Amino acid sequence: MKGAATATRPFAGPDRLPGAPTCATLKPVVRERSLLAVLVRGLGWAGAALLVISVSLVGLYSVVTPASTLMLARTVEGKSYERDVVQLRNVASAAIAAVIASEDASFCSNDGVDWGALHEVLTRAGVHGPKRGASTITMQTAKNLFLWPGRSVVRKGVEVGIALLIGKTWSKARTLEIYLNIAEWGDGLYGIEAASLRYFHKSASELNASEAALLAAALPNPIHRNPAHPTALHRRLAAGVEAKVRDSSGLLDCLR
Fold first, then answer.
1. Is there a contact between 83 and 71 (Cβ–Cβ < 8 Å)?
2. CATH number belonging to the domain at 65-251, selected among 1.10.940.10, 1.10.3810.10, 2.120.10.80, 3.30.230.10
3. Tens-place pLDDT, residues 13-29
4. Closest CA to 242 of 205, 202, 201, 208
5. Model confidence, pTM
6. Which one, out of 32, 81, 122, 202, has a CA that is 20 to 30 A from the CA of 41?
């Protein structure tokens, strides 16, 4: 009818389809995505920082004998430690051969990682980190210099990366020299020179094959294996190291 008022309803915007997300449901999703993006960026920056620090320190340690993370931790805790830095040429060849035979028989031929052993142990380990059997001397050096104790796939991945960097940067002689100066041989006791002096009252240059094997056999469990007072098990392990040295050829080829 002309002039009659027409009913109107307030504008409420376009009709919402059934099941469509509302602002209330979208906000938590956006917030979760933002937090995830921040986390990813943070991990990226942390990875980049670790890479820069590692490259810088690996370069520095090619000329400076470093302290391990365990030594630094003791210092922070106010505890002392014992170490006498020694050059590789002042370590008896019997000791060098024993450590290589015991810890990493493929040291002279690998690139810092024993890929076959690592694959085998990772396959057995599942989601947990690989056990010590997968670690080369170079990997143990990387762990002792740059990383934290414990086992995890993430930490092992970082360890492998740093070991490859070390393998490309340092000579085999330098890698072994640093390892022998930071390896743990007792509570607060680091390096083969300090270990030799404590256990056998002689310099590392004077070690014989039997003493060298006892020191090498202590490395997997240095807190509980005393080379000066070996248990029956420790003696058997040391005898195995001596036999391995006798039966192996080329253990020192890359150091000559």
1. yes
2. 1.10.3810.10
3. 455 555 555 655 556 65
4. 208
5. 0.80
6. 122
